[in-house]
């Protein structure tokens, strides 16, 4: 069900949930002042309550009313908002529902860089909680039609075109005691860029990847398509490629096709989830040969994170020898 922005603002004001575009992926939005809207978000997505939501704000000032800020987090917000950066902060007493944070004392906040989402925020009296607009554990939507497909047209959606970034925001949390910025979920805003943006701060701040193994967004099988996806990694191609194809077909129980992607992280991110949806629809098993430099370059880290979670198996090829690992 497609709706316009004015209708979306009306529905949100009355405590309904609506799918809205952001620059990363489409979000399933509800006002944080309406507990019933928050409940609807979890119910619509079949999302467990232990998975906390991101609060979307119109600007830094609005974010300051929700959480306690430190100078490092504030500098990051000034540099990268609106944009694909989510900042985890200590929440202010009584400012954020326990439904959003699963009763925890931190809240994840971001200001999205999309005219539709920002206009909705400016038209509303409170920020919007918005997880990606997909069923729990499934691939995030990057087009309005993906949201329609995911929920059989049952979720009111504003069509804002294809998301420019294509994978979810980078999630960070600054640890003041350790002077370290932890990257909890990698994204297109990569660790090097974050580090460079903090060079004016002294003493210097470390930037470290700390994936939360047990947190839901960080489950090893997140984003998984329903058809088999196999990653082919390693330092060489095998002598007998047919033998490998046979093994992959055997694993998938159906013919496998190669997934060809451009060698540009921005372009890959933009088409990644749409491609996975197409493969699902065509019931086609896919293998993707990972170029050796991808996992080593910072900009690829967000993409490799999603691919590692989405795949069902990977094939390691080293010096012509290969092994298939099932997840
Ligand atoms: O790009 C995005 O971030 C999109 C768009 C819609 O803004 N949203 C999104 O939301 O990806 P969601 O719910 O699919 O993922 C939110 C992630 C989860 O993995 C969750 O664990 C983490 O953020 N998160 C939320 N609150 C947190 C907190 N207090 N501490 C640590 N991680 C948190
Ligand atoms: Mg999600």
* Average of pLDDT: 94
- Rg estimate, integer Å: 20 Å
Annotation field: number of helices: 11
Overall strand count: 15
Q: Flag low-confidence runs.
A: none
Give the proportion of residues in helices: 25-40%
Bound molecules: threonylcarbamoyladenylate, magnesium ion
What is the terminal-to-terminal distance? 37 Å
Tell me the quaternary state.
single chain
SSE pattern: HEEHEHEHEHEHEHEEHEEHEHEHEE
**Largest sheet, strands/sense/barrel:** 10 strands, mixed
Helix and strand composition category: alpha/beta
In what range is the share of β-strand residues?
A: 15-25%
Shape: globular
Defining key terms:
binds threonylcarbamoyladenylate; 327 residues; alpha/beta; binds magnesium ion; ten-stranded mixed beta sheet
Summarize this entry quickly:
The protein is an alpha/beta fold and 327 residues long. 31% of the residues lie in helices and 21% in strands. Helix 10 links the parallel strand 12 and strand 13.
Descriptive overview:
The protein contains eleven helices and 15 strands. The protein has helices at residues 5-13, 35-45, 60-64, 71-80, 98-101, 115-122, 144-150, 191-197, 241-252, 265-281, 301-310; strands at residues 18-20, 27-31, 54-56, 67-68, 85-91, 106-110, 128-129, 170-175, 180-185, 206-209, 229-234, 256-258, 285-289, 313-318, 321-326. The strands form two sheets. Strands 1, 2, 3, 4, 5, 6, 7, 8, 9 and 10 form a ten-stranded mixed β-sheet that branches. A hairpin with a 2-residue loop joins strand 14 (313-318) and strand 15 (321-326). The radius of gyration is 20 Å and the shape is globular. The structure holds threonylcarbamoyladenylate and magnesium ion.
């Amino acid at each position: 069900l497609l709706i316009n922005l004015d209708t979306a603002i009306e529905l949100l004001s009355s405590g309904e949930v609506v799918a809205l575009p952001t620059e990363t992926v489409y979000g399933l939005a509800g006002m944080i002042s309406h507990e019933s809207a928050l409940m609807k978000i979890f119910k619509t997505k079949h999302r467990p309550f232990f998975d906390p939501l991101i609060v979307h704000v119109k600007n830094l000032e609005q974010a300051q009313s929700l959480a306690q800020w430190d100078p490092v987090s504030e500098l990051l917000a000034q540099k990268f908002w609106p944009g694909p950066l989510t900042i985890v902060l200590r929440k202010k007493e009584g400012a954020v529902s326990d439904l959003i944070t699963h009763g925890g004392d931190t809240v994840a906040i971001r200001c999205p860089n999309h005219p539709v989402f920002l206009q909705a925020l400016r038209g509303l009296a409170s920020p919007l909680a918005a997880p990606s607009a997909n069923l729990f554990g499934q691939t995030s939507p990057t087009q309005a039609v993906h949201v329609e497909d995911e929920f059989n047209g049952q979720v009111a959606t504003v069509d804002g075109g294809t998301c420019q970034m294509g994978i979810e925001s980078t999630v960070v949390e600054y640890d003041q005691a350790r002077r370290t910025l932890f990257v909890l979920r990698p994204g297109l805003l990569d660790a090097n860029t974050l580090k460079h943006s903090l060079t004016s701060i002294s003493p210097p701040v470390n930037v470290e990847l700390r994936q939360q193994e047990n947190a839901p967004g960080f489950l090893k099988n997140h984003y998984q398509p329903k058809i088999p996806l196999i990653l082919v990694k390693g330092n060489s191609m095998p002598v007998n490629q047919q033998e490998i194809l046979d093994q992959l077909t055997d694993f998938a129980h159906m013919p496998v096709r190669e997934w060809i992607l451009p060698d540009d992280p921005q372009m890959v991110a933009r088409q990644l989830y749409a491609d996975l949806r197409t493969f699902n629809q065509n019931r086609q098993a896919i293998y993707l040969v990972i170029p050796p430099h991808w996992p080593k370059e910072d900009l690829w880290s967000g993409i490799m994170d999603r691919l590692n979670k989405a795949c069902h198996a990977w094939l390691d090829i080293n010096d012509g020898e290969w092994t298939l690992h099932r997840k």
